[in-house]
Input
Amino acid sequence: MTPAAFKQSLLHRKPPECAPALQALWWAAKDDWNAAHAIVMAHDDGDCAWVHAHLHRVEGDLDNARYWYRQAGKRPATGAHDAEREAIIAALL
Output
């Protein structure tokens, strides 16, 4: 799947078949923070930790976000939330 195909999938009611971290980002792009958060909470891997960090950053809980960035081995993002989400999608695809 390409980032463009992922973006196009947002027109549907359900996420495409993909890794949990990408499914969480799909729900985040649909403004369903709770669904996205439930997915990353259920998985213990670096990709989900990275998305988890992003979600808490979007929420405004920067201390929690920093914790999850450390768990993912990533530097905390500082740019626009949408730009970060798109960069994570591109990296995971």
Notes: The chain has one domain: 18-92. The chain has a mean pLDDT of 96. The longest helix spans residues 46-59.
